[in-house]
Write a structure and sequence with these properties.
Helix content: under 10%
Largest sheet: 8 strands, mixed
CATH topology of one domain: Leucine-rich repeat, LRR (right-handed beta-alpha superhelix)
Strand content: 25-35%
CATH class of one domain: Alpha Beta
CATH superfamily of one domain: Ribonuclease Inhibitor
Shape: globular
Structural class: mainly beta
Length: 490
Amino acid sequence: MKRLWIALLCLALCAPWTAGLSEEAQAEGGSGDFSYELMGDGAARITGYSGEGGTLEIPAELDGHPVTVIGREAFYQCAGLTSATIPAGVERIEASAFYGCEALASVELPAGLKGIDEYAFYECGSLAAIALPEGLETIGPDAFDDCDSLTSVVFPASLKRIEASTFYSCDALASVEWPAGLTAIDELAFAYCDSLTELALPEGLTFLGVNAFADCGNLTSVALPDSLSDIGGNPFSGCVSLEEIAVSPDHPALEMLDGALVSRADRRLICAPEAFAAEAYTVPDGVEIIGAAAFETCWDLASVTLPDGLKTIEESAFANDICLADIDLPDGLTGIGKMAFYYCSSLESMALPDSLEELGDWAFANCGGLTEMKIPAGVKRVGIGAFKNCESLASVELSNGVEMIDADAFSNCRVLTGVVIPDGVTRIRTWAFKNCESMVSATIPDSVTEMEDEIFDGCPDLTVVASQGSAAQIYCAENGIRCEAPDAEG
């Protein structure tokens, strides 16, 4: 999944970046093994390299023009490059500059460097250590992603933020010297850094993103500073060896409640290390929100007891808990977030409480064991892909109150035989029942006025029951779907 995001991001970045070049670049040139272009201030941006690599000292000038930027993909997949010294005067290393230089074992960065852009050293698999110079202000997302030989990083005090996925999957990274001025660590910044065993995050840090240290499989203990006030979701999902989260008893924003990390202000459970290796877990009384990714990828968790007073289950809270089979949702629960129970393949039944108002996108997608579902009246929208790929789902009851069935909501529910759309639904979006190949009947009321393309694509035996002249009857006529009037049913 992450590799797909990388490809899409690269494509998205390409067009606007090159458009900017045509306005900024004044002339192109070449000097030895280097190609370059002149920027508006007369300085050179290196755009390419045709040499054999080896140990390389990048020149400070090209044809008398000072080099200030290492351009996008300038050394892209330079297989022979083993060492690079970047000269003083370079202020920015642009996106993917050294992308895929797998033999690059050492890089000397200059004082005065201000920014390292996204994917700059992506998949530099031989890079063992990096000392980031004082004055560096930004490191873009995925800048050192998949540098799986990287063992240590020294940050400058000038760096305030470590962006998303910056050191993702740096398997050998065991030592991090945090900068004194660090205020934020974004999502997935150090995910899959399996050699990290202990973390003492620095005072001054105020924000920690969801999954910031996800799947650091050997991480055993974490100490959080009193300055930390904003946690976007569970930073430690999948950290199966985590035993201790140390929080000061006087921490203004966080507390440990029966071994679980909880936000004081909204009573949100952020992380429960005890659940990572447990088969059963009881959420402490007083918790009102199960936070994003709180129990994500708890592989052995089969049973969860939720407290009375729980109001919301956030995004991906129980995602990928493949053994989860026993969980009762309490009365008073109002929201189930996006992907909350995604791929909980052992769930066979789930009673949604009448208090429920929000059913998020992909909330129960890939729950292949679910056999029946009743959507309560308080839910106005069945979210995108909410029950997609629930291949055992044979019965669905939609209560009056539902107004929209969103795209892909029940697609690939292959044993679902029929559905009655309640009066009050006004819109059914594309692929809502796609590939429900056992579906033989769908009753659609006159209240439905908007039906998008391919709602019933892959339902070969379907007959729709709808009034003559209704939007549903017209839709069927236009799309070659059998349709009967209600009074002709049977």
